[in-house]
Every structure is written in structure tokens, then in C-alpha cells.
Amino acid sequence: MTDTGRTEDGPRHIAIIMDGNGRWAKARGRPRAFGHQQGVEAVRAVVRSGADLGVPCLTLFGFSTENWSRPAEEVEALFGLLRRFVDADLESLADDGVRIRILGRRDGLSDDLVEIIDRAETRTAHNSRFFLNIAFNYGGRDEIVRAVRQIAAEAVRGDLPADAIDERIFAAHLDSADLPDPDLVIRTSGEQRLSNFLLWQAAYAELVFLDVLWPDFGREHLEGAIGEFRRRRRRFGGVDDR
């Protein structure tokens, strides 16, 4: 990956809901798992493109807490893709200065999958050139509930006074602690909803919905979404006097 420097007018953090793998495969008469496999190639492309375009932080929605309701063979295929992605790409990503973080629950995952997640995070822990976050076994409401439980436990122990709890303290208990909130959330496939993704963090994110299915997502789509972001006025509840 070529480092062209950070953009001055953002976005600093892009989050993507990678939707449409199943429909892409169905349109070609193939099983849904084939669409997910092709989606991994789009992941590789968007990581390269994000770094080249000077976006320092990227979060991808890989597997939600609601995805457990899908057929068992599809769930296992999704788990297998994470395994293969780490096995195939970890060393090159680490050498390129990419730091990997997996957001979401660890409980419910197999021991070997937890080991793979731990290995990816440990191997890249000291990198800081590009931040790649994968939301896996993740749900925004679940993340908020887990944060509330942690804060409540600290308050009960006397470690955290109730009147000290504010937005900063709350954000520090989320899976994304120490990461900037996303400036831009992209969803592919034409669907127009957040689907329980980064509900707290995306409070003031710009939303861009694209008709392209995820396996067909490429650099040109990312550049187009960034261009749309830069054309918007971000007021954060204030008034735009321009």
C-alpha cells in the first residue's frame, strides 16, 4: 500500500456495512457462501484503497449478533472466511503498518476463532499507520448494554462515582474505545438503514447508500462516497452561516 498522506478535509474514519453478498451470488446461480468469498476480495481492495486515499481508519461490519439466525452452513462459511483472511493476509497487513481490532462479543465463538482474533490483534498491536476494525459477532445495542454493565459494576464497587459518568466515560467502555467516531458510514446493496451498526458512534456520521452489491465494490465507489462526504456541510447541531 502506498501512503499518500491524510486528507485535510476528511473523512478520518469510514465505516462500511458490507451488504449484498448473497444477492450477488444468487444472481449468478451460486450459493450464498460464494458471494461471501468474493466479498473478501472487495475487503482487500477497500483496505488498499483506504490507505492510498489517506483515510487512516476503516471499520467493516463482518458478522452481526443477528446473523446467528442464518443457516448453520452460511454461519460456518462466514467464520471460515475470517480464518482464511487472517491466515492469508495477517503478515502482509502487519508489515504494511496496519493495526487490526475485532469489535464485538468473544463469547459464543469457537476457541480456535478466538485464538485467531487474539493473534491478529497481538501481531499488529504496535502498528499505527492504518487502523482496520472488523465488527464480528457485533451488535450496536449489545455493545451499549455491555458498556452499561461494565459502568454499573464499577459504580457498585465504588470505583466510579455516578456523577462522573458522562459521554467520554461511556465511550471509553465501548468496543471502539480510543478510536475516532466514524465521519462517514457507507452501506452497499441499496438498503438504507444502519442495521444495529455503531449506533452510539455514528450519531453525527454522514450516511451514503450505494446500489452496488458488496462484491462489486471498488476504489471508484469509495472515492465517490468520499466525494459526496466532502460536498456536505457538517453542522453538528449548529448553524451553517456560509
From TrEMBL:
<feature type="active site">
    <location>
        <position position="19"/>
    </location>
</feature>
<feature type="binding site">
    <location>
        <begin position="64"/>
        <end position="66"/>
    </location>
    <ligand>
        <name>substrate</name>
    </ligand>
</feature>
<dbReference type="GO" id="GO:0016740">
    <property type="term" value="F:transferase activity"/>
</dbReference>
<feature type="binding site">
    <location>
        <position position="70"/>
    </location>
    <ligand>
        <name>substrate</name>
    </ligand>
</feature>
<comment type="subunit">
    <text>Homodimer.</text>
</comment>
<dbReference type="InterPro" id="IPR018520">
    <property type="entry name" value="UPP_synth-like_CS"/>
</dbReference>
<comment type="similarity">
    <text>Belongs to the UPP synthase family.</text>
</comment>
<feature type="binding site">
    <location>
        <position position="187"/>
    </location>
    <ligand>
        <name>substrate</name>
    </ligand>
</feature>
<dbReference type="InterPro" id="IPR036424">
    <property type="entry name" value="UPP_synth-like_sf"/>
</dbReference>
<dbReference type="InterPro" id="IPR001441">
    <property type="entry name" value="UPP_synth-like"/>
</dbReference>
<feature type="binding site">
    <location>
        <position position="19"/>
    </location>
    <ligand>
        <name>Mg(2+)</name>
    </ligand>
</feature>
<feature type="binding site">
    <location>
        <position position="68"/>
    </location>
    <ligand>
        <name>substrate</name>
    </ligand>
</feature>
<feature type="binding site">
    <location>
        <begin position="193"/>
        <end position="195"/>
    </location>
    <ligand>
        <name>substrate</name>
    </ligand>
</feature>
<feature type="binding site">
    <location>
        <position position="32"/>
    </location>
    <ligand>
        <name>substrate</name>
    </ligand>
</feature>
<comment type="function">
    <text>Catalyzes the condensation of isopentenyl diphosphate (IPP) with allylic pyrophosphates generating different type of terpenoids.</text>
</comment>
<dbReference type="Pfam" id="PF01255">
    <property type="entry name" value="Prenyltransf"/>
</dbReference>
<protein>
    <recommendedName>
        <fullName>Isoprenyl transferase</fullName>
        <ecNumber>2.5.1.-</ecNumber>
    </recommendedName>
</protein>
<keyword id="KW-0808">Transferase</keyword>
<feature type="active site" description="Proton acceptor">
    <location>
        <position position="67"/>
    </location>
</feature>
<keyword id="KW-0479">Metal-binding</keyword>
<feature type="binding site">
    <location>
        <position position="36"/>
    </location>
    <ligand>
        <name>substrate</name>
    </ligand>
</feature>
<keyword id="KW-0460">Magnesium</keyword>
<feature type="binding site">
    <location>
        <position position="206"/>
    </location>
    <ligand>
        <name>Mg(2+)</name>
    </ligand>
</feature>
<feature type="binding site">
    <location>
        <begin position="20"/>
        <end position="23"/>
    </location>
    <ligand>
        <name>substrate</name>
    </ligand>
</feature>
<feature type="binding site">
    <location>
        <position position="24"/>
    </location>
    <ligand>
        <name>substrate</name>
    </ligand>
</feature>
